[in-house]
Predict the 3D structure of the following.
Amino acid sequence: MARAPRTTTKKVPPKAARQFEVGTLPSREAILEAMALFPDLDGKRELARHFGIKGDMRTPFKVLLKEMEGDGHLARSRKQIRRTAALPAVTVLDIPADADPDDLHAFPAQWNDAEGPPPRVFVKPSSRVAPAPGDRILARIDAGEDEVPHYVARPMKVLEKPRRGQIGIVRMDEDGARLMPIDRKSKEMRIDIGDLKDARDGDLVEVEVKFTGRLMIPKARITNVIGNPKTEGAVSMIAIHNLEIPYRFPSAVTKEAEAAKEATLKGREDWRHIPLLTIDPHDAKDHDDAVYAEPDTDEKNVGGHIVYVAIADVAAYVRAGTALDREAYIRGNSVYFPDRVVPMLPERISNDLCSLKEGENRPSLAVRLVIGADGRKRSHSFHRVLFRSAAKLSYQQAQAAIDGRPDDKTGPILETILKPLWAAYGVMAQARDKRGPLDLDLPERKIILDGNGMVADVRVPERLDAHRLIEEMMIGANVAAAETLEKHRQALIYRVHDEPSDEKLTALRDFLASLSLPAPKGQGVRPVDFNRILAKARTDGKIQQVSEIVLRTQAQAEYASENYGHFGLNLDRYAHFTSPIRRYADLIVHRALIKALGFGSDGLTEAEESKLPGIAEHISQTERRAMLAERETVDRLLAHFLADKVGAEFDARIGGVTRSGLFVKLRDSGADGFIPASTIGQDYYRFVEEMQAMVGDNTGETFRIGDDVRVKLVEAAPIAGALRFELVSDGSRGVPSSGGRGRKGPSTGKGKAGAYRKFARKTR
């Protein structure tokens, strides 16, 4: 049975309330006053009825309303008319990500800039709805009666916040053009030829949605042509959009950065006589740490060293409450892609004023570490200084000099600067080994791009002592920062890493037992226990399997305002201090030190201190978002790189086992792929959790995590960043699994494997 159409009747004010002469053209003031008194007067028809406009008066009345709209007194949205700077009784609001959680404010989700700046709305606390910074809410609006409108929002519901923009691939057809969205939840849209810009078939583009016709059909209007979706710049934009990473600086932030003036010696110690130098990747665009070391001449510290670590003084330029600070907080950290950086701070700050450039005066927050002959820190002190970098070196350049191959730049400083640095590192490394941090040194692959932004090669950079030297000195500075702030009872944000959960430890013990390897006993474990396991596995030729499981056993590091130590580094207290250009956590620690040590007026504020738990949670989330974006981009680039190699065979290692199948990593490129359980061999395979293996019910053929296998590429889905393989090699022979039929047939469709199959089915 058809349902009768729903009708609505608007209430109009009673005649007794009408303070005007019916049938005459009302004044502008009368129209605005009536709309203020009677909110239901939100359309031409309602206004005409209210003022008794009929016959020949309709046209001049429409003209009057149009003029008021043109003059900015009225605003129109579809068929609705409202007073400028007036919000409807129920509206959608966006709470800024940097809003104070204890004093929330919001702005209209939709606002016409021609009406002036959007009104700021105070969000009243509610026991039923608990919005947070960054949320979009539906709220009832109470307007104040002052001459300048002010609003109070009563939250009704937290809404799902739509993406700021959309990206997709242009496809030309006989009817013109259409947009194929990257996000599979979005629908295809037509593109009018006039809205194509310079886009061509196959280009990746950014679009905005427009609505046309009486049916308000959505169409795409191209706002930016990104280009070939196979290039790194385009692939990174997919991750940026999908994960909603801010990548354009608001004009207020840019203006503030451009207006910044270079810091001077005022209020600082002069360290320009100390020849600190930077050691970074050869392609680094910013340099936020510099180091120097010398033998300690104190008779009480024979064989000891003095290590200086100078860190860019970002707090001098990015002050709490400024536009720069709010944007840095929202971003949380810089995001690094193979050939692109989405920085936390504008280039004027990150690559210029705060970058420790060779030969240029730069402000720094520095620490002087006194290291004993045993490599342990005896004391330390912090200083706010001005210094000048003596040299800019790459890791490879510094290492080559130490290895006997100095160049024109490193030769003159080899004896005076580089060798004392390595001598200090040598004793610090001994202390590190005694401390026993988790020794899980996994290689990281680097994608090499050609001139067109396409993948040319994938390499594993050599791990050098120069890398370890900088890492060890940065760890020393970070520990000193946490110790100093605790000594002064100053609130801070810690870098924490919890010990493994009991559940993960139980799974590890079961796995080690399946390999006949000893497992740590008792509930409490230390990094040294894992190191013993890894050493035994290396001796027995089982290091690959064990390394993967030990890695999976670890908790994820995060930021917190309360300290529970850093398990992986085996440290009781630890704080990120050494990278304020790219991490907001470090900037907070810098401000805390400035306040605690009386270094200036730009230290941590009381308002910031009260928000530290929320700040820690937020920047932990932005860090995870950055890691996911980087991983997704690498996956897509490698899928593009291998797309024309379908049918080829590769050496791989099993990196994960689930009921759905096997996750493998190619030995040469490091590309990750999936082998569905339904395609493994001719047997029925059962997932044996304690072994982290798929075992054949009848043959006992076993495919275990860490096993080396030979695979064939069956399908590549570059936009999804997914690769599907088949096994070519056989598994090891073991004991047949027990208990019914195993995993043969369709998988559960969960996790990354399920996401790949859904995408693959759609694109086939």
The chain has six domains: 15-83, 90-159, 166-227, 251-433+446-485+578-629, 499-554, 646-763. The CA atoms of residues 314 and 344 lie 12 Å apart. The first helix runs from residue 28 to 37. The mean pLDDT is 86.
